[in-house]
Amino acid sequence: xxxxPPRSTLFPYTTLFRSVGSDVILFxxxxxxxxxxxxxxxxxxxxxxxxxxxxxxIKAFDVxxxxxxxxxxxxxxxxxxxxxxxxxxxxxxxxxxxxxTLTEMLxxxxxxxxxxxxxxxxxxxxxGSNLVENDILQPCPTSYDYDAPLSEAGDPTxxxxxxxxxxxxxxxxxPGPVPPATPKKAYGxxxxxxxxxxxxxxxxxxxxxxxxxxxxxxxxxxGQAYGFVAYxxxxxxxxxxxxxxxxxxxRDRGYVFVDLDPVGIISRMDIVREINITIKSNQILTIFVExxxxxxxxxxxxxxxxxxxxxxxxxxxxxxxxHFSLPLNNTRQFEDRTTNEVGSEKKISDSFIPSLFAxxxxxxxxxxxxxxxxxxxxxxxxxxxxNGFNLGRYWPVEGPQITLFVPKNLxxxxxxxxxxxxxxxxxAPSFPYSMEFTDVPNLNGRVA
Length: 448
Hints:
Elements lengths: L11 H6 L9 E5 L2 H7 L5 E6 L5 H11 L6 E6 L15 H13 L3 E5 L13 E4 L3 E4 L18 H11 L19 E10 H8 L5 E3 L14 E7 L4 E9 L2 E2 L1 E6 L2 E7 L6 E6 L4 E7 L15 E2 L3 E3 L2 E2 L3 E6 L4 H10 L14 E7 L10 E4 L6 E5 L2 E6 L9 E3 L11 E7 L8 E6 L10
Helix pairs in contact: 4-5
């Protein structure tokens, strides 16, 4: 039994959470090395370790024993898979190794928490990112399938059944059969039309006031957490030869335009902090910045978004910036545009400008809605909405994720009209435009 200390001796953070009840054990979780546990250990809080398949189970729990001489062995994060990053192959779990390590732990009567048992989906802009040295960002895709025992759609996998067999040797299983996979439906192609460009929507889709400052402001200074910010300034000098435009502090991906012409991309992920442009006096320079995901691990958690440095052109600091905040979280307003403005396409430039596309579809008569997957193959990079709900980012040209999961509860049954809205950032396919709803997910597409 773990003894309860006097309240006056508790670490302030744990004091806050003692209200969860006297029968609840607070614990810490750290990697299976002594240096990590010693850093995370809190007085009067039970220390546990985490590790994945293939690790030395005895050695890992020996580390825990150095900090907790009594009490259960606990692997508080047993990794059944791993997360993905854009531009990297989809992770595939080694099921036999998972089974072997799980068996070793249960033979020791250890407690095991599986991370993840069901990965799920990072809808909207909630997908995170990781940071490696030299400030290189590794953004995660929308899917958090994780190659977990339950798939992104909540369906049991081969790994699930193998884990179930192991657990059955040490504990009674729940009565009854395993629930089957949910039915999926391929609803086919949905025709899309170009509504307008995001430049034409800056004022109507913006959040809050238009902010004008001498130097560019971060998302946080503008009161914005996710989405996009458009930064614009009028340049008062002419450079007819390619000239360096530099943004050392780009967070995270900046689409650069001179007036309405795209001239390049500055990218934290791709380590591109400088491009060459030509520009004339009195032309408008716009940098359309995307937050590609909050850092969720390590020492880089204090991760402001937007433009964090001076923007220089030929070494000269550009000033007098106008800010348009575009969190794209007013889904009702967005849905109204996708259903009411279809057909108002205007051609502004031969080069591609971030644009809104929209279409409507009706589900088959006499059927309840079913889970499905949106396939943006042929498109480049953007965000998709169904009935005003933000499904998340797609980026099939980068991979590995191709399809976006669409749960059935987002769909309206026959004869109601469903809407599909697409914000494409980098390049639409050839006309006529469309996207397809399919019944098969694809999380392991070709990577760039």
